Amino acid sequence: MEITKKTACELGKMIKERKISAVEALTEQLAVIKKRDPEYQCYLTIAEEEALKEAKKVQKEIDDGMYADSLLAGVPIAIKDNICTKGIKTTCASKMLDDFIPPYDATVMKRLKEAGCITIGKVNMDEFAMGSTTETSYFKQTKNPWDVTRVPGGSSGGAAAAVAAEEAFIALGSDTGGSIRQPSSFCGVTGIKPTYGTVSRYGLIAYASSLDQIGPIGRDVTDCATLLETIAGGDPYDSTCVAAKSSSYRAALKDDVSGMRIGIPNGYFKEGLDCEVKEQVLKAAEVLSQKGAKVEFFDLPASEYAIPAYYVIASAEASSNLSRFDGVKYGYRTSEFENLKELYEKTRSEGFGDEVKRRMMIGAFVLSSGYYDAYYNKALKVKATIKKAFDQAFASYDMILGPTASTTAPKLGESLSDPLKMYLGDIYTVSVNLAGLPAISIPCGEDKKGMPVGMQLIGKPFEEATILQAAYSFEQTRGYKRPMIDERKIR
Amino acid sequence: MIISDETIAYVAALAKIKLSDEEKIRAKKDLGEILGYIERMNELDTDGVEPMSHAFPVSNVFREDVVTNGDEREEMLKNAPKQKDGCFVVPKTVE
Amino acid sequence: MKTYETVIGLEVHVELATKTKIFCGCTTAFGGAPNTHICPVCTGMPGSLPVLNKKVVEYAMAAGLACGCEITRKTKFDRKNYFYPDLPKAYQVSQLYLPICRNGKIEIETAAGKKTVGIHEIHMEEDAGKLVHDDWDDCTLIDYNRCGVPLIEIVSDPDMRSAEEVIAYLEKLRLILKYVGVSDCKMQEGSLRADVNLSIREVGSTEFGTRTEMKNLNSFKAIARAIEGERKRQIEVLEYGKKVIQETRRWDDNKDTSFAMRTKEDAMDYRYFPEPDLVPVVISEEWISSIKEKEPELRDAKIKRYQTEYEIPAYDAGILTASKRMADLFEETIAICQKPKEVSNWLMVEAMRLLKETEQEADELMLSAKKLAELIEMIDSGKINRTVGKEVFEHIFKEDADPLEYVKKNGLLMEQDDGRLKEVIRIVIQSNPQSVSDYHSGKQKAIGYLIGQTMSLLHGKADPSKVRSMMEAEL
Questions:
Q1: In a 3-state reduction of DSSP, which class is residue A83?
Q2: ipTM score of the complex?
Q3: β-strands C52-53, B62-63 pairing
Q4: How many Cβ pairs closer than 8 A exist between chain B and C?
Q5: CATH code, A11
Q6: Phi, psi dihedral angles at A222 (to 5 degrees)
Q7: How far apart are CA A189 and CA A193, in angstroms?
Q8: Residue C459 carries which DSSP code?
């Protein structure tokens, strides 16, 4: 099963050079999934038939000379289950969409098909992307491949775990407050949250429309840059996605950080940060400065207000976005009801999990008459203040470095009991979404228990290339570590 | 922050969800804590700051007035829990 | 009993005449089998996103400018959140904080005289779907074809005091919108809908009373009745010492009364907030002036021009411009035959008579300007006389007959051959010696009898004045 240890780009190259066929690669991947997924529980849907059909088709097209300029033609990819895939069940890990089969493809899915990627299945997540552990999934509990007693992080936990466990070469996740970066950090893989407006949201089942972005999760920076290049660019179906198609991402992959100005916010290393995480991140910063980057500490004001502002804005938008799930047009419908009101209330009470209900109630509250200005409008002002603080920081720095998460992956079942504590864990990631900035999380070490630690690099708007270059350069020095997968333990 | 039973009932009604008694108690505690924490925002002076709903100043994104869609009824109805005569179905909305 | 005055403000919803919906490429065509004009966007499929139809903004601007509104330079959309089966996303994309138009006014005229009604704002929004109640299965069926059709809501100030003023306002508004061409304003198809906000107060009081909002008013008659009914109801409430409750009421035109629409348990808290899926619309000076340039001549301007340019009396000009169709026909015909007065007469008298007779609206007038001009020419050149002309007009009006062919087919062309005329006149003179001698002995009216005889021999196909002069010559 060595093939599944390759990166997506290595596999793409082999397929191009006819060293392996798309169908063979897929078959190998399916074999690994069948062996390991009963343990790690990454997949909600394995689209075996569709994938085999697609792989055959794509291989034939490759033989006919198509996909000449695609580096991922024939490469299997895992898709987070909140991205609409025409004809393949898309559940958002919720009972509410248990049987929902989208009648259309998300724009990113169209782009993947144009590049000849093979959708192998849909991966687990927190219900409607609300959570930081993938434990709010209605269907299953995904485990962290580095230690199956721990969470993979969330909400894109299935995607990050699948990539780490070699159940996928690469995957698409979505990030509203850290949902790509934090699980990437917990699972020792690389993930990018692009600048808001870089990747189309058309077909991404909305959590918080003004914060959501789709992005790649891979085993290395090159895979992420390549996949991002494949899916990025303006879309006539998304008014907020107007970025020109960029091809600068792969071009930026040079082992050179000399002269780069990297700022580290003092506030990021205050209380709440696990000391082993702190140690690893500072070591990584040291590596970058030894390679010629100009690294210094500075003060980033207002960042401590990011979490409250985030939960106001995200919950408000979510309460509105999730109102359409009412048992009328699609998804779950309660079996017994007397009238319309009962149809709505029973359907939604039975169809949604606790965390989703909690956020919908918070959202309803902060928007309700009498509270709008004190909560929602205030949060929009805090957001503006945070954005300004970043703009000022970027006048002196090319990027901002910090931890992705304050800890390594916690044990299963530890987090949900205290929602507020779980929210506070997003301290390093949410401000990036509020300001619409690009950020990447790359593995930078392990703690004493051997759990991976992630480093986050935050870039200027639409300057993904800069953080990709720094991340790539760091990766050249450190290399990629895979989880110790004890095949014997896997039934 | 103290959340009253009325407030819980009100937001639940707005969100169209029915809560069991235990859920109400839990919701009161959680919302109280979370909203209490959220009120920290008030420590930050935002006088004269423009509320920002979009992070970047994009404007005037339009479609031309051209019909691009045909009859997709079958596809659109495929996921409906109940349908009749090409329509979605709900209980009588008028008595 | 105290004397009360009625205070009325209107919220008029108008469906815009765009080809496609406001946020997707589905057709807005009226009718069509249920749910055959829908897509992931207008059915609120998970993950779908709206993209604004540029034409909607331009139509809203045109309507606003025609109503003397200020155009908001940076306008945004907001979400209005509530659950109802005709609203698939459970929120309506509308405008609360920055509507596209503000502060307009419309001049209305009633028996009481002229008056100005203020336009508080005009905002853009999406229409909802249609609910059909199925008594057989005791359920409600949802058709989303109308869902996402662009609307503008025109909100007036509470400036109206009677049903008469309300109707005058609506007539004027409808005419303006039709002239500007942003909507067909067909009430029966729901493309113009009015909600009435009504309150009463003691005459002389400056405070407003508590208002109710009445919906489901689908004809001007219903609106007039509803206003009268609600006014009476509120007076009764107050006279009984009770208070009017602010609520939405549904007018039932059959029962001739209104009912409170929503039950208490429905929290009416719309939780408006800026629509994050749409970006702001920034309107430049250039854009506004380009819309102004396209604005057609409105009724008031036409009435003035008809009087000065064509010397048409004010009253006639008023009638000719009461419908855009009629005004267009009038101008098209003049363009061909350059006889404003003639054209005006035919439209004012014959066209109006036939419209009434066939129970049609002036808007439905299917009369060819070319053929009307042709008819007028035929009369002027003496090919036919006026009596025959009326007959021909009726056939043009009813079956779009070709004037020349028609008169030829029915042999209505006038006798043009003077030799033949003389011959007939001589025959008449010879066969009526008595009348002739009467004439010569000074009885002038005897000649009338002789002319009549001549006309009847010619089956009326002659110009009486010509006959007279030739007759006199012969005598």
A1: strand
A2: 0.96
A3: parallel
A4: 123
A5: 3.90.1300.10
A6: -60, -45
A7: 13
A8: T
